[in-house]
Amino acid sequence: MEKNYKYWPKGVFKHLTYHEVPVFECLRSSARQWPWRNAIIFGGMELTYAELDDLSDRFAAALAAMGVSKGDRVAIHLPNCPQFAIAFFGLLKAGAVFVPVSPLLSEREFAFQLSDSGAETYVGLDLLFDMPRQALTNTGVKNVILVSLADCFPPLSAPVKPLQKQPLPEGVTDFTALLAQYPPEAPEVEFDVKEDLAYIGYTGGTTGTPKGVMITHYNAMANYVQIGGWICGGEVIYGDGKFGIGRMEGDSDDDHPMRMAREVWLLVAPWFHIMGLTHLVCGVMTGATLIVFPRFDPTEFYGPSPSTGAPASREPLSSSWPWPRTPSSPRSTCPKSPSSTRPPPPFPRVCWKPCWKRYRAW
After folding, report:
1. What is the distance between the alpha carbons of residues 75 and 87, in angstroms, rounded to a whole number?
2. Phi and psi for 233 in degrees, rounded to 5?
């Protein structure tokens, strides 16, 4: 049956090329093209693409030194934060497989997921380590690395911050110390992207025990190429280690919702969820500056051009007004969302209409 392209947007390719590269090349590409551009802003902390690439190389080197090799599972049990992104891209560079773990899991669910996935390395948060500390004894985890959000504060202001670094339990490795200990030299790993796993993401378990979904690098990159072409227009191209946008004649960047290396994204969806992870990698692939929060707070709004998240996040945004303009966001603040430019159910129209009017008016 022939496809109906009657309402297909102009400038968006109908057929795409899926590039056979590992997922971390999305970061490598942006670090090569825009090393000076901020990749992540978190609580006032700024991390450029060159820095994110360097730190993830260091984490990859650290994992290799700890005995982590290709195919080994590494679990990340964190809220959205710079350390999550560093660990995620770093473990992929080391050839390991990412196992996202929700901080909302019960002890039983937590132990099941780590045991079922075969995770041997765990990256967690010092503030939330009480439950994992007990549960890890029932898993095959050998390496425990703890993150402190207090490390994101500048040293000068850290003493007056309410969030302080927690003492490390015996046998636990400090994430920041690990990065300082190793050089930015990721191990050389050969990838078969159509066979090698990038993630094992677990289903919600609404109809039974959660199932681990095995996602290869090629699976994941196909998704990112599709989304990249949809939001930026044209087709995502790759060459000489760099991603870009190939366009039809007469088409331009400004004809589409997003533009490479010119946007500021507000990331709301958690990265331990596949939707949030997709937003992270697509934002990195397109060179966006990512405003990151560990928890969604509509009052802390930096004036990004798009926002990402579930439909329910739009209602508090519509009531948190006004939003500031910023030099990095010269256009109207937050007029569009990569998740949906129109509300999917069950987001009620009565909530969406005032939100949309405010986007358009501002």
Report:
1. 10
2. 80, 175
DSSP string, 40-69: EEETTEEEEHHHHHHHHHHHHHHHHHTT--
pLDDT digit string (tens) for the chain, length 362 residues = 788 999 999 999 999 999 999 999 999 999 999 999 999 999 889 999 999 999 999 999 999 999 999 999 999 999 999 999 999 999 999 999 999 999 999 999 999 999 999 999 999 999 999 999 999 999 999 999 999 999 998 888 888 988 899 999 999 999 999 999 999 999 999 999 999 999 999 998 888 889 999 999 999 999 999 999 999 999 999 999 999 999 999 999 999 989 999 999 988 899 999 999 999 999 999 999 999 987 766 666 545 566 566 666 555 655 554 544 444 443 434 445 544 434 444 445 555 555 555 444 44
Lay out the sheet containing 97-100: strands in order across.
173-174, 143-147, 119-125, 73-77, 97-100, 197-202, 212-216
Measured between alpha carbons, how far is 39 from 56 in angstroms, rounded to an integer? 13
Rounded CA-CA distance 279/308 in Å is 7
Distance from C-alpha of 53 to C-alpha of 85, rounded to nearest angstrom: 10
The rounded radius of gyration (Å) of the Cα atoms in the chain is: 20
User: Closest by alpha carbon to 266, among 223, 352, 324, 199?
Assistant: 324
Which residue's structure tokens are 């041997």? 120
- Which residues are paired to 214 by β-bridges? 200
- Among left, alpha and beta (phi > 0; psi -120 to 50; other), residue 203 is beta
Cβ-proximal residues to 290 (8 Å cutoff; 6+ apart), any chain: 39, 40, 41, 265, 267, 280, 283, 284
Cβ atoms within 10 A of the Cβ of 148, count?
Answer: 20
What is d(CA 138, CA 83) in angstroms, rounded to the nearest whole number? 26
For the chain, which domains are there?
43-217 (3.40.50.980), 309-362 (no CATH)
Token pair, residue 137, equals 């004894």
Q: How far apart are CA 117 and CA 211, in angstroms?
A: 10
**How far apart (Å, rounded) are the C-alpha atoms in residues 223 and 63?**
27
